[in-house]
Structure formats: C-alpha cells, structure tokens
Design brief:
This protein has 332 residues and is α/β, with parallel strands linked by helices. The protein is built from 15 helices and eleven strands. The protein folds into two domains: 148 residues, Helicase, Ruva Protein, domain 3; 163 residues, P-loop containing nucleotide triphosphate hydrolases (Rossmann fold), CATH 3.40.50.300.
Length: 332
C-alpha cells in the first residue's frame, strides 16, 4: 500500500457511508438518519448549500431502501426551461404540441418502482406546484395532452439550497406542497462547519486523482494543510474536489503546496470565533487540539507512523495510544 493509501486507511470504519465521507458528529447524525429512514417510504426533504452532497444523500436513501433494485431517477427542476418542466416530469402524448411527433414518458413514469429525486425543488414553477402536489397525494398522473390516468409506485426525495419557508412567505412556493414534502427534513452542514472532515476528504480526493493520473504525490505540505483548514469553502465539498483535482493534474512536485490548490494568504483569514463558541471545558479543547495535530501530521507524512511521531515530538507507542484513543485505524 502506498503512502496515500496508508494515509487514507487511517480514516476507515465509520467515516465511509454509501459513497460519502465524514467523521464529524453532524455527518454521523446524517448517516444515522439515513439508516433509520431509508427502509420506509417516507418523503425526505434534503436541504443544504450547493456542493454539500444532496444527491449523494438521495442515492444513499435509495440504496438503503427496498427499492434499491429499481431505478434512481434524478431531475433538476431549476435546469429545465419553464415551458418544458411539465413534459419533463409527466411526459406527453403525440400531437400534444407542435413538435410532439410521438409519445414520450416523463421522469415520473421512468422512476416507477424506484426513487424519484427532485433536485432544486424550490425552482419548480408556481403554476406546476398544484399538479405535483396532487401527484404526490394520489401517485397518479396524466401525460400532457392525454386523458388516461397512469398510476406509479415510487418514493420521492426532494432537495434544494433555497429556504423554502422564505419562499412560502414570498408566495413563490405553496405551503401545502411544502408540508407534504416535509415528512422528514435532513439538513447537510457546509464543509466549513465539518471540522477535520476537510482533511479526510482532501486525502480521499488526492488518493483518487493520484491513481487516476498515475502521479507520484506523497501528500500535502504544511502550508497546504493550514490553507485547507482556514479556507471558508463557499463551494463546499465540490469545490474541494475540484481544487485537489486541478492540483494533481497541474502539480509537478511530490508534495502539494497551498499554491497548487490556489489557496494563498487570503484563504487563511478566518472570521473571529463567536464568544459562545470560545468557552468549552479544557479537557475537550485539549483533546480536540491533540486530534487535529495528529491528523495533520499523518497527512503531512503520508501516514508513516515513525515520522509522524517524530514530528509530534512523541514516541511511536504514544502515537499508537492516541490513535486508539481517538478511534483512528493505524495505517497498514
């Protein structure tokens, strides 16, 4: 196993879940909620900033459900021209409009027996929201230009980055549709609130792209680790993935630096910590600092235990003790 492989093996176990990575408490809560809700057919409404992994959550719900052998059909309600949304959802009959030369099924029918993922549900045109509500209630619909009702059996997961409660107040999203979709709400935290998950994810992406492009890259330089921690990640996990991808493609050295990630001095400027977040028991603050220091050292030294211990100024047995204490799997 190479250095990055050993490095990544440190974060196995509870960190990985249905294609997602996360060891922070909030992501562990997300994983636990998915485990509990997936076996039912309850509608799940996923919210979160762009790039937080809403479709991954929807796919995890599908894969953990009894419908996993059926289709998973995603549709982005905000990416379809308004005049085509109804046809995309429900399909159309031949001759329904000028260019309708034949019959076409919509995503609702294609998702029969599986899961329909309605992404960016907040962008659904207001005029179509009553029709979607009726479909959700009855699981029956008619194609555009048709008269025959078609029944389907599917599960719905909806998602959006918009605040639907604000949209309701502005009369751009129907209250009855909101409460119909709001059977179970799952909110994804932004990357900047996920603590050391940024290192876990950065190592994962580095390992993936290093193998993809057959590049000999051993890890991140100290300035890169500091920049990863300090950056606010407005594009969340997707932004981190793109930055690491670009760094691996363009990098010419075995160690990636902050500049390779296009993260410079400006990325290190963090806003002041709110006063209520400063005060915490000394034991918890000390353990948090110990865990972060160990993870950074492991990343900087490619998971090599002896060099990591030397960098931390401790013995290898002491490092092994800390790995066990924090539930980190020693590299192989």
């Amino acid at each position: 196993m190479g250095k990055i492989g050993r490095q990544c093996s440190t974060f196995r176990g509870k960190v990985r879940f249905e294609g997602m990575l996360g060891q922070c408490p909030r992501m562990q809560e997300v994983f636990d909620t998915i485990r509990r809700v997936a076996p039912s057919d309850v509608i799940v409404l996923v919210s979160g900033e762009s790039g937080t992994g809403k479709e991954l959550v929807a796919r995890a719900v599908h894969e953990r459900s009894a419908r996993r052998c059926g289709p998973f059909v995603p549709v982005n309600c905000g990416a379809i021209p308004e005049n085509l949304v109804e046809c995309e959802l429900f399909g159309h009959e031949k001759g329904a409009f000028t260019d309708a030369s034949g019959e076409k099924s919509g995503v609702v029918q294609r998702a029969d027996g599986g899961t329909l993922f309605l992404d960016e549900i907040g962008d659904l045109p207001l005029r179509l929201q009553p029709r979607l509500l009726r479909f959700i209630q009855e699981m029956r619909f008619t194609r555009v230009g048709g008269v025959e009702e078609i029944g389907v059996d599917l599960r719905i997961v909806a998602a959006g980055k918009k605040n639907l409660k604000t949209a309701m107040r502005r009369k751009t999203f129907r209250e009855d549709l909101f409460y119909r979709l709001h059977q179970l709400h799952l909110e994804l935290p932004p990357l900047r609130e996920r603590g050391d998950d940024v290192f876990v994810l950065a190592l994962h992406f580095l390992d993936r792209f290093r193998k993809m492009y057959r590049k000999e890259i051993d890890g991140f330089a100290p300035d890169a680790l500091l920049a990863l921690e300090a950056h606010r990640w407005p594009g969340n996990v997707r932004e981190l993935e793109n930055r690491v991808h670009s760094a691996v493609v363009m990098g010419e050295n075995r160690i990636l630096e902050a500049g390779d990630l296009s993260l410079g001095e400006d990325s290190r400027a963090c806003p002041p910590i709110p006063e209520e977040e400063v005060v915490e028991p000394l034991r918890i603050a000390r353990e948090r600092a110990e865990l972060r220091a160990i993870q950074k050292a492991l990343a900087a030294h490619g998971g090599h235990l002896t060099r990591t211990a030397e960098a931390l100024g401790i013995t290898r047995p002491t490092l092994s003790h800390f790995l066990k204490k924090f539930g980190l799997k020693p590299p192989r």
